[in-house]
Fold this sequence. Notes:
Chain A is α/β, with parallel strands linked by helices. Chain A has helices at residues 45-52, 75-81, 98-105, 109-112, 115-125, 127-131, 142-154, 172-187, 199-205, 228-236, and strands spanning 5-16, 19-30, 34-39, 60-65, 68-69, 83-86, 160-164, 191-196, 208-213, 216-222. In chain A, the strands form 2 sheets. In chain A, strands 6-7-8-3-9-10 form a 6-stranded mixed sheet, sandwiched between helices. The longest helix of chain B is centred in the first third of the chain and has 31 residues, at 2-32. Chains A and B meet through helix 2 and helix 3 of A and helix 6 and helix 7 of B.
Amino acid sequence: xxxxxxxxxxxxxxxYGDFHxxxxxxxxxxxxxxxxxIGANGAGKSTLMYTIAGQYVPANGTIEFKSDRIxxxxxxxxxxxxxxxxxxxxxxxxxxxxxxxxxxxxxxPKARGNIEKNIKKIHELFPILADRGNQRSIxxxxxxxxMLAIGRALMSEPELLLCDEISLGLAPxxxxxxxxxxxxxxxxxxxxxxxxxxxxxxxxxxxYAYVMLEGRIALQGNASDLGEEQVKKAYFGx
Amino acid sequence: MEALIQPIINGLLLGGLYAVIALGLTTMxxxxxxxxxxxxxxxxxxxxxxxxxxxxxxxxxFLSILFVVPIMFVVGFAIQKYLLNRVLGKEMEPPLLVAxxxxxxxxxxxxxxxxPDAKGIMTDISVKxxxxxxxxxxxxxxxxxxxGCLVIFFxxxxxxxxxxxxxxxxxxxxVGAARLMGIDTSNxxxxxxxxxxxTAAIAGILVGMTFSFYPHTGSxxxxxxxxVIIIGGLGSMKGALLGGIILAEAQLLGAHFVGPGYxxxxxxxxxxxxxxxxxxxxxxxxx
Lengths: 238, 287
């Protein structure tokens, strides 16, 4: 594990209108790690993901990606920097074909030159996407859509892949398969931040973990050092 | 029977023109969920632009397309980027009102500059016909139809095969996810409107060569466009072609059987009948 951090968040607060969603959140993600962010519904995990991706602007504090300030940049620009978000609920483009969804993933100028090469890599990772290339993505099963959403994010050649609730609503056998692929992606050198409600599964693959509670970081540590009791307490705020 | 062939052929050819008239309206509805009430007036603005080029610079009406198309692209881009994008959101009404405002302003501007007199763009082929047996093909109608089909063909190619076309379709499917892909959706919507105005420019020039027009004609063509896209299905391009042909056939056959005075009425009676049988239009997707 290298100790060089690729993402550094320093004391950010995020509001939706009057609602204070993130309180003084600081975290660092090391290059090449899988980092798990866990917490109950409404703990602020998705808000944190979307803030990193540029959708929400922190009221104060800073976000640095590879030593560049990215807070307030807007999601259509953070992609070009090397951050890709696999959104909760998959959000594939339903009326576009599987192939076209992947092409759109490579919208940034940086990725546009390597479309053929990257599609080949993603087809090796998820062969089903090659078989279903000409189908409209709305016709895919939930698990296939999730693979497409991950593949589409990888098309932008990210250095940091943010995955928001990728196991939501999927069968255990499908989840297992997708998690195995995440480890392959990680071995390629891509840093991964994983938001999950399924604590055990995400801790098993993660190097480092943050537990969020009511918009704050309640607990953090190496995934292997965190005890079950300790996590449970932070998760429920007991 | 022989007497029927003439109105059927005329209806088919006119249908191609109706399709290209409606194209900009249906694509903007499909992409931005925007009902552009100024569509007809922007189309007639193109007719006047072409007329000005023809009258004052002696440019061939067909060549005027090369000048009017880029102008209308910029006009469409600017309207979307600086006016309509600002009011796009959850509500349907604000963009509708802005488009209505643009429509009123354009009509009155055209009235001021060009007077209320009827105008027409004269071409060498305005009165030419091709005779095949007992059938007379008006050359201008034939040109309208061919250009209409070409516009639809290339537009479909653009939306299905080009990078930008795919990005526009992605933004129309899911704006939030499109932004996550790096797509600047406000620019993309402006480009989509620019492209809709390219089709409106071509439609405007063809209409200007085929029929007479005056500053208020735009609203007539807006209503025709609504008819075409309701029959064909909202947002569908091949629906626009079929809708155009059905509406035009209904009008011309209606005029043939009942009398010319009933032409418009019968067109809309057919529209109502199709709405009753298939409310989502022929190529529309039921929600």
